[in-house]
Write a structure and sequence with these properties.
By secondary structure, the chain is of the alpha/beta class. The chain has two domains: 16-103, Beta Barrel (Elongation Factor Tu (Ef-tu), domain 3), CATH 2.40.30.10; 113-262, Nucleotide-binding domain of ferredoxin-NADP reductase (FNR) module (Rossmann fold, 3-Layer(aba) Sandwich). It has helices at 89-92, 132-137, 141-146, 163-171, 179-182, 203-209, 211-216, 234-246; strands at 16-25, 30-36, 48-54, 60-66, 75-81, 100-103, 121-127, 149-156, 186-192, 226-232, 260-264. It has a six-stranded antiparallel sheet with strand order 4-3-6-1-2-5. Strands 9-8-7-10-11 form a five-stranded parallel sheet, with helices on both faces. A hairpin with a 5-residue loop joins strand 3 (48-54) and strand 4 (60-66). It is globular and about 55 Å long. The two termini are 30 Å apart. Bound molecules: adenosine-2'-5'-diphosphate.
Length: 268
C-alpha cells in the first residue's frame, strides 16, 4: 500500500482526500490517472465510485467513475473523458501528481459477475471510457473461473483512443495473477468510427451485418451459453440492449441476476 495517508474528513460518509500518483493523456478527449487507495477501500471488479474535486465555493464536485484497476491493486486507476465545459472534467484533466482528489466511500454498480447467471462465454461491450470497468474485470481471476471465453469489444472515434484497452489486454499475458488463467481465453475486438481502421464502424453496425461474429470466428449470441455486460453512452446502451433482447438475453441486476447487465459510462 502506498504510504501517502488518506486524511479522514469529519463526516463518516464524506469522501476521503487521496493523492494523484500519475496522469497519462491519450488524446485531447481521454486520459487516465492513478490515485492512492485507502486500506479500508474495498470494491468488486466492475463497480464505480464518486470521484471529485473541491469546487470554488467549497462544495465538492463529484461524478461517478468506474474503477479500472483490479481489486487487488494497491492503487486506484480511472479512465476519464475531458468533457468540454464539463463541471468536473474541465478541471480534473489538469491534475498533476501530488494533487488532492476526493474519493467516495461507497463503491456500487451492476457490472459485476454476481449480477450474471452462469454461462460459457462472457461478452464485454464498450465504447469510449466505457472500457474502464472491463479493465478491472479482465484482471480478476474470478472472470476466468466463471467463463471459458471472454470477448471484450472497444469502439472509439479515433485510433489513439483505443490505446488504453490495447495496453490492458496486451498486459494480461505478463500479469502474475491472471497471465496463465486468462491465456487463450480473451478476444479483444476494437472498432473505430472516425479514423481509418481495419474494422471501421460502430459495434452495433458490425453486429447487425454479421461481421462481428465472422471476424471473431464464434457463433452468434445465445441465452443458453452467453452473458454480456454493456458500458458506453446512453444511446449506445439503448441500441445494445435492443440487440441483447433480440438475441433472447434478459437484463439482470444485483438483486436478480440474469443474462446481461448495463451501466452508463461517465461523462461530465
Ligand atoms: P460515432 O463516431 O459514429 O458517433 P462517444 O465518444 O461519443 O461516446 O463515442 C464513442 C464511440 O461510440 C464512437 O466511436 C461512437 O461512434 C460510438 N457510438 C456512439 N453512439 C453509439 C451508439 N448508439 N451505438 C453504438 N456505438 C455508438
Amino acid at each position: 500500500m502506498n504510504d501517502v495517508a488518506s486524511r479522514t474528513p469529519s463526516h463518516p460518509n464524506a469522501p476521503t482526500v487521496e493523492t494523484v500518483l500519475s496522469v497519462v493523456h491519450y488524446t485531447d478527449r481521454l486520459f487516465k490517472f492513478r490515485i492512492t487507495r485507502p486500506p479500508s477501500f474495498r470494491f468488486r471488479s466492475g463497480e464505480f465510485v464518486m470521484i471529485g474535486l473541491h469546487g470554488g465555493d467549497g462544495k465538492p464536485i463529484l461524478r461517478a467513475y468506474s474503477m479500472a484497476s483490479p481489486f487487488w491493486d494497491e492503487e486506484l486507476e480511472f479512465f476519464s473523458i475531458k468533457a468540454p465545459g464539463g463541471p468536473l472534467t474541465s478541471r480534473l484533466q489538469h491534475i498533476q501528481p501530488g494533487d488532492p482528489v476526493l474519493l467516495g466511500r461507497k463503491p456500487t454498480g451492476t457490472l459485476v459477475l454476481d449480477a450474471l447467471t452462469p454461462g460459457r462465454r462472457l461478452f464485454l461491450f464498450s465504447t469510449g471510457t466505457g472500457f474502464a470497468p472491463f479493465a478491472s474485470l479482465l484482471r480478476d481471476p474470478e472472470t476466468y473461473e466463471k467463463f471459458e471465453r471472454v470477448v471484450v469489444t472497444h469502439t472509439c472515434r479515433l485510433t489513439a483512443e483505443l490505446r488504453y484497452s490495447e495496453d490492458i489486454v496486451d498486459g494480461l499475458v505478463d500479469d502474475p495473477l491472471i497471465g496463465e488463467i486468462s491465456a487463450g481465453k480473451v478476444v479483444h475486438y476494437t472498432t473505430c468510427t472516425r479514423d481509418p481502421h481495419p474494422r471501421p464502424g460502430r459495434i452495433t453496425t458490425r453486429l447487425d451485418s454479421g461481421e462481428f461474429f465472422k471476424d471473431i470466428g464464434e457463433p452468434a449470441l445465445s441465452p443458453e451459453t452467453d452473458r454480456a455486460m454493456i458500458c458506453g453512452s446512453m444511446a449506445m446502451i439503448q441500441d445494445m440492449k435492443a440487440r441483447m433482447y433480440a438475441c433472447g438475453l434478459t437484463e439482470g441486476s444485483n438483486a436478480q441476476p440474469a443474462e446481461f447487465v448495463i451501466e452508463k459510462a461517465f461523462a461530465g
